[in-house]
């Protein structure tokens, strides 16, 4: 098992890279940006794991809520996306998530989403596979056509009942009457202070419990069923792409370096280098919607 000691894998932000062992194949020449060399490796790969982060969604216009300037009212996501904030002020946290749901519902897949989905469909016909392991909570990979998607941070378009635990897909807009036109992000907008019985409630018979977004809040552990699937993919992939992630949100930030430590080629596609770039074989700099389509296009050796 690669993800030893799962108990430590609570979602969190860390700004240093000391938590990951350096791979055995580290050398000073890494990473390189030789696309033709990457394409040769890509043409031989049978099982490709693509780890995606907020940068992919950002190219569709979905805000990342990671930067100093990306606040909702006066808060950053790590102030609101916590179990403590939800239990203290569920109305405010629901306003924040209502705002994010409405934004995400309005967006279309980017060129990067489409390139990944097209690659999966094409390689499937060749008996090869692509899995997307995403930190994004929007639904854009699936909208683009990706079939094999592991959403490690949950989904904005699902709810979970805090009483009975029932999880359900919910794309209603607005999700409940009381949230209609709420969630305006301007800093001087007061809290709507919606009574808790008017917030989204469970539809299971006799439950009527409070619903929460089915996303992993900061400080919460990742879903163990998803983690088991991620472990399997990390152990079996023969090529990994790390796309549009700043590699500072744990535990996802360590997935790429762990795969690299097995001697598997890892290629990073991002607008900047990241704290993890030095662990990877390749780094392709620029918007993912520009760098990814030629990287994942049909190779002459595919024959179809
Ligand atoms: Zn319930």
From TrEMBL:
Cofactor binding note of this UniProt entry: Binds 1 zinc ion per subunit.
GO cellular component terms, semicolon-separated: cytosol; mitochondrion; nucleus
Residues that, per the record, bind substrate: 97, 100
Enzyme Commission numbers on file: 2.3.1.-
Cellular localisation: Mitochondrion; Cytoplasm, Cytosol; Nucleus
Top-rank taxon, per record: Eukaryota
Predominant localisation class: mitochondrion
Reactions listed under catalytic activity: N(6)-succinyl-L-lysyl-[protein] + NAD(+) + H2O = 2''-O-succinyl-ADP-D-ribose + nicotinamide + L-lysyl-[protein]; N(6)-glutaryl-L-lysyl-[protein] + NAD(+) + H2O = 2''-O-glutaryl-ADP-D-ribose + nicotinamide + L-lysyl-[protein]; N(6)-malonyl-L-lysyl-[protein] + NAD(+) + H2O = 2''-O-malonyl-ADP-D-ribose + nicotinamide + L-lysyl-[protein]
Cofactors: Zn(2+)
SUPFAM superfamilies the UniProt entry points to: DHS-like NAD/FAD-binding domain
Domain Deacetylase sirtuin-type positions: 28-302
Residues at which NAD(+) binds: 244-246, 270-272, 288
A molecular function (GO) term: protein-succinyllysine desuccinylase activity
Cell wall biogenesis/degradation among keywords: no
Keywords in alphabetical order: Cytoplasm, Metal-binding, Mitochondrion, NAD, Nucleus, Transferase, Transit peptide, Zinc
InterPro entries: DHS-like_NAD/FAD-binding_dom, NAD-dep_sirtuin_deacylases, Sirtuin, Sirtuin_cat_small_dom_sf, Sirtuin_class_III, Ssirtuin_cat_dom
Active site: 153
Protein family (similarity comment): Belongs to the sirtuin family. Class III subfamily.
Domain notes: In contrast to class I sirtuins, class III sirtuins have only weak deacetylase activity. Difference in substrate specificity is probably due to a larger hydrophobic pocket with 2 residues (Tyr-97 and Arg-100) that bind to malonylated and succinylated substrates and define the specificity.
Name of this protein: NAD-dependent protein deacylase sirtuin-5, mitochondrial
Source taxonomy: Eukaryota, Metazoa, Chordata, Craniata, Vertebrata
């Amino acid at each position: 098992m690669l993800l030893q000691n799962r108990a430590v894998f609570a979602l969190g932000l860390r700004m240093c890279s000391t938590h990951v062992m350096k791979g055995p194949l580290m050398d000073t020449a890494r990473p390189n940006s030789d696309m033709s060399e990457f394409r040769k490796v890509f043409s031989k790969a049978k099982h490709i794991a693509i780890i995606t982060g907020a940068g992919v969604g950002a190219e569709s216009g979905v805000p990342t809520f990671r930067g100093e300037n990306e606040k909702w009212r006066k808060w950053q996501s790590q102030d609101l996306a916590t179990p403590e904030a939800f239990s203290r002020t569920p109305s405010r946290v629901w306003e924040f998530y209502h705002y994010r749901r409405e934004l995400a519902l309005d967006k279309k897949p980017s060129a990067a989403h489409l390139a990944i989905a097209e690659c999966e469909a094409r390689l499937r016909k060749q008996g090869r596979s692509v899995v997307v392991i995403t930190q994004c909570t929007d639904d854009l990979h699936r909208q683009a056509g990706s079939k094999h998607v592991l959403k490690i941070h949950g989904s904005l378009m699902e709810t979970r009942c805090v009483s009975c635990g029932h999880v359900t897909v919910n794309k209603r807009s607005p999700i409940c009457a009381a949230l209609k036109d709420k969630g305006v992000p301007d800093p001087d907008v007061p809290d709507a202070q919606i009574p808790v019985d008017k917030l989204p409630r469970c539809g299971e018979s006799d439950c009527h419990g409070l619903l929460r977004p089915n996303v992993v809040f900061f400080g919460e552990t990742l879903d163990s069923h998803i983690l088991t699937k991620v472990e399997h993919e990390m152990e079996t992939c023969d090529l990994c792409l790390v796309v549009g992630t700043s590699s500072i949100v744990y535990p996802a930030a360590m997935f790429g370096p762990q795969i690299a430590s097995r001697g598997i080629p890892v290629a990073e596609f991002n607008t900047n280098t990241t704290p993890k770039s030095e662990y990877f074989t390749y780094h392709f700099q620029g918007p993912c919607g520009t760098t990814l389509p030629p990287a994942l296009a049909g190779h002459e050796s595919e024959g179809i």
